[in-house]
Design goal:
The structure is a homodimer. By secondary structure, chain A is an alpha/beta fold. Helix content of chain A is about 35%, strand content about 15%. Chain A has helices at about 40-50, 65-75, 85-100, 115-120, 165-175, 225-235, 245-260, 260-285, 305-315, 340-350; strands at about 30, 80-85, 105-110, 125-130, 150, 180, 205-210, 220-225, 285-290, 295-300, 315-320, 330-335. In chain A, helix 4 (about 115-120) links the parallel strand 3 and strand 4.
């Protein structure tokens, strides 16, 4: 690679690595936290109705209808909602909008691995604060003296949840900087911080339709915060890309947010499957943390994480292993259908010589 | 607006303003350079075939099929192609990937008004070089001594084209910095610089499917350059948003690139309508520059630009007026269907008291 023409700012970057998206073979895919259930039938209908000659026209740059649908669901005003091309883009825009070089942003050492990538991309200063040994968050280490706080709740890849009382403590101890709570997985059993918005002008909550709304393929994410915070993200977005959501994504997003019964039904199924899977895995000798997300974080005393991942792959099952300190013996396993999870548990049993 | 929580980096930003997308009334919409013809029927078919339960899965982060289709059309290798969420996003990523603060980027004073916005967003140094009075580019002022060059060809909003011989001179005089040629409108009659890629490792060409492929609603843009330049844009993209193109946009893009006969037919119609419209407007006393794009840049000695824009709006016709020095008496008029352009010309005649 010749980097002669690369900006000096990007020569040292190590990009984020998404989970594998295999093209060659049919796997049981438990590696990227996708929802095993299809999107609401209303979503597919909305897309079909929108896919006509109007695609020659630009989409609404303000995503007005989608903001209204999200605002209604979340119980906030439309000017408290920002919509973007997946929550990854929303997070990236938030990092740029709220954090300033020279003012250290803090997040846990074990969390969504895109956070340090954004900070490197934008040349922000940051500190990764070590989680406790049981992967709980040492709240007292997030109480002030920094330039911003980022908390994934429930945390990825651990699945552990921080109670709202602790989020509150962090918000109150950081009144002059933004506290970003990434709730990509909160719909699977965690308490959302959105109700705290009326009390804390420094709070922004980031959500996605990829997981609990089964729309990873459509790239729809959003942020909810005070109008002043949302205006900041809008300012960056409108200085970078006026139309991040295409016409079909906008239509799909509205239909997904409005079909609350389908959302409730599918997330309840995933939570039930998760609890059943956790029980089986514990009976096989795995350590399984309580999870409020659509994945389990597991380890087994008899086998290294990477070896187990590879053995599962040979059996046609993909799970996520992270080559990172402290979690090398752990695997993150997305909750699939009951059948998929039974196949997964059976494969684990076979591999472990049960 | 309270900017207390805004990053210091963004407090002075003035975002890009896209053309009006009216919701309340049916206009003849000649203000945002959309294509009056629908996308290829194959595009709509491809979208319908892709819109099923697979939307629960992430799209291909590498856009492999779309890159292959673009590479085939452009006569380059797939690793010379970068795909993004509309050419605005592609341009933004390129500005970050190739230009370094302290090294002045140059572009004309009258050009796509997003360029200075990107430079402000990323705190790049830049200089706007005045076009000649007839809106031609003073090539000699772009020959070296800067940190990067951005040329929109054909230029927006003027429609004027730079011949490849001049692009060549600029490339040769700037061997150590990237020359970005934005060809958003090149399919309507300009010579593409893509054939120069084999000679100039400092060239990157940015294109869009919004205009000549009638897909503004789907947000698909791409860049073509050497593998080393494409790798730089990829590095920034993968540090910001792994999946900028959703599954339906990827499918739509492939179908659009592959339906060459439809593309040839519709762009030929637009060019024919453009020439007929230019002739009529000249007969009404307008100054109309030759255009190689899907718009005309026009002025009339008897009426100020803004007054004419407002008078057209009252008659249900939207055109673009820019409140900027040197072009306040000019209007940018997108080429619509023959019927739309006849209505536009008739309205002009009426307004001007013909």
């Amino acid at each position: 690679m010749d980097k002669k023409f690369w900006s000096e700012r990007i020569r040292g970057l190590v990009p984020y690595t998404p989970g594998e998206q295999p093209k060659d073979r049919v796997f049981i895919k438990l590696n990227t936290n996708e929802n095993p259930w299809p999107p609401s039938p209303n979503v597919l209908k909305a897309i079909r109705e929108e896919a006509d000659e109007r695609l020659r026209l630009y989409p609404d740059p303000e995503a007005t209808a989608l903001k209204a649908a999200i605002a209604k669901y979340c119980g906030v005003a439309p000017n408290q909602v920002f919509c973007g091309n997946g929550s990854d883009e929303v997070l990236g825009l938030c990092f740029y909008a709220f954090f300033t070089p020279g003012h250290k942003v803090v997040f846990p050492d074990i969390t969504y691995s895109f956070y340090p990538v954004y900070t490197e991309l934008f040349h922000l200063d940051y500190e990764e604060i070590p989680l406790n040994d049981d992967f709980t968050l040492p709240v007292e280490k997030f109480l002030g003296g920094n330039g911003g706080v980022v908390i994934c709740n429930p945390n990825a890849p651990t699945g552990r949840t921080l109670p709202l009382s602790d989020i509150r403590r962090i918000l109150e101890a950081n009144p002059d900087v933004v506290v970003l709570v990434d709730e990509a997985y909160a719909d699977f059993g965690a308490e959302s911080a959105i109700p705290l918005l009326s009390e804390y002008p420094n709070l922004i909550v980031v959500c996605t339709l990829s997981k609990s709304r089964s729309l990873a393929g459509m790239r729809i994410g959003f942020a909810v915060g005070s109008p002043d915070l949302v205006a900041a993200v809008n300012c960056v977005k409108n200085s970078f890309n006026s139309y991040p959501l295409d016409r079909l994504a906008l239509a799909a997003g509205v239909a997904a947010m409005e079909d609350v019964p389908y959302f409730e039904k599918t997330r309840a199924r995933i939570m039930a499957t998760r609890e059943a899977t956790a029980k089986t895995l514990r009976s096989l000798g795995f350590t399984v943390h309580d999870s409020s997300s659509n994945f389990l974080f597991i380890t087994h005393p008899a086998m290294e994480g990477h070896a187990l991942q590879l053995a599962l792959r040979e059996r046609g099952i993909l799970v996520r292993w992270f080559d990172r300190p402290r979690i090398r013996d752990w695997l993150r396993v997305t909750i699939g259908t009951d059948d998929e999870m039974e196949a997964f548990c059976a494969a684990c049993k076979e591999i472990l010589g049960g």
